Amino acid sequence: MRKKAKWSFLLAVVLIMSLFLSACSSSSSGERSGSSKDGDYKQVLNVASSEEIPSLDTTEGDDQVSFNVFASVFEGLYTMNAKDELVPALAKGDPKVEEKDGHSVYTFKLREDAKWSNGTPVTANDFVYAWRKVISKDSKATYKSLFATLGMLNADKILDPDSPMYGKVDKLGVKAVDDHTLQMTLTKEVPYFKSLMAFPTFFPQNKEYREKQGKKYGLEADTTIYNGPFILEKWEHNKGWVYKKNPNYWDKENVSLDQINVKVVKELTTRINLYNSGKIDRVALEGDWVEKYKNKKDFKTYLGTSVYYIKFNEKNKYLKNENIRRALSMSFNKKAFVNKLMKDGSVPADYLVPKNFTKGPAGKDFRAANGDLLGYNPKEAKKYWEKGLKELGVDKVNLEFLSYDGPENKNQAVYIKNQMEKNLPGLSINIKQQPFKVMLDLEENLKYDFVWAGWGPDYQDPMTFLDMFLTGDGHNQMAYSDKKYDEKIKFAKTHTKDLDARWKALQNAEKILLKDDAALAPMFQNGSAFLTKPYVHDYVVHPFGPDYTYKYVSVDKH
């Protein structure tokens, strides 16, 4: 899913994934933190987020901020536990799988004690309704292609404007056998099936409630109902929101936190000051702050699985030229960028699919097998630049660099601008900073020249990084199109039994995207450096899907 630049790791230097946990003693509720089992204390966390919630609608959300909220207030058939294992959630267990007419029929039995926050039971029809809504032709969902990726019967035809079945969502291969029996029909084997069933796009929605709310659904805390560990009790736009433990949640006995208060705090310096003053329990670091705190006992780093890059809008008269894109991609020093500006464990990336993410049939890491594809080389960049200028018949190029707001993001954008202008004579770049939600809208409508972007894996397979650049895909928001690339991705989607051939197709697709077409300028694979108070436990960051859920977090009495 889309990440906010760090540069966010999640980002934005705000690493999204690091909403910062704060001391419960500063809770807006006035309650002290501790064990809720004590009777005298409640477990309350105060969290700082870099961004407002873009959406509470699981059928349309596609960004990391929204997904991290989804993971705590909604739930699907599966979920990720504190050990990063995919385990049944609303499903009672793994499905019964039967072969019928050349297809695989998956039958899930659902929990009978699962309820929405208004007391209404969660039923199989809630899944059918939500999935049909995602895939409908009127849907704005950028993730609707996941149903075709999954191989759900007729999904590809329902999504194809040239098919007689286009838009006929009642033909989708899913049905409610009864209130607590959900059945889906798949046309192929998918190695990451459980990963998708834990992904928010596949979460249920209650039809009666949703349609009663109409256009108001998901816009406010009180126009949404929840079926996850927490509910959103309060939401003050651009200021913050409050989670409360969901009394109707089927597994509430294993939820430690009673309340989480989230306040929007954009400035990194402010968050660090809050941490040092004991008002927050966790804060992400980067740049010089990493150097300052790296020897503290509460300091930790890790290499994540999100990759950040620059996207080029190929509708731009300059950027539709391959040599211009390649020159830009090779013109900035990534190693210096992560070492001088990030300092948080991030590593330079000359690739799209991250290191240490997934292995192929032979047991070798995808990244190690496919190597580096588009690296820093200022001399070669200048040659490609001059060739591109000649092809375009110009000697000067003016471009706008769309980036996230905030001082840290500005510094990083300025670094890229200076590197590019220094190594590419005749280039002039104007930096345009915008809030995260505005950025999403500008990207969707291709109202940019080139933009800072990032992607975190939705499921554990290279396809999660690659299929979004198919011609016409909802996430292909840069007008990129290559028939050879499309062929490789479509082959990998359909040849799921020939694992070696599928893996080779995915490797070749990445090479076409970066090495042949220079469609993106990869920058870095995210690292995270953060400080966490010793009384905070099990703040788990997941390798794919939403970064975390508060279900497993606990805070000792302190």
Summarize the structure.
With 558 residues, the protein is α+β, with helices and mostly antiparallel strands. 28% of the residues lie in helices and 22% in strands.
Report what the structure shows.
With 558 residues, the protein is α+β, with helices and mostly antiparallel strands. The protein has helices at 64-73, 124-135, 146-150, 155-159, 193-197, 207-213, 268-276, 288-293, 322-329, 334-342, 366-370, 378-392, 407-423, 436-444, 463-466, 483-494, 499-516; strands at 8-9, 11-12, 20-22, 44-49, 78-80, 86-88, 96-100, 103-109, 174-178, 181-186, 230-236, 240-245, 259-264, 282-285, 299-312, 347-348, 397-404, 427-434, 450-455, 520-532, 536-537, 554-555. The protein has 3 domains: 8-74 and 225-286 and 528-555, 3-Layer(aba) Sandwich (D-Maltodextrin-Binding Protein, domain 2); 86-210, Dipeptide-binding Protein, domain 1, CATH 3.90.76; 306-526, Dipeptide-binding Protein, domain 3, CATH 3.10.105. Strands 14, 15, 16, 17, 18, 19 and 20 form a 7-stranded mixed β-sheet that branches. Strand 11 and strand 12 form a beta hairpin. The two termini are 36 Å apart.
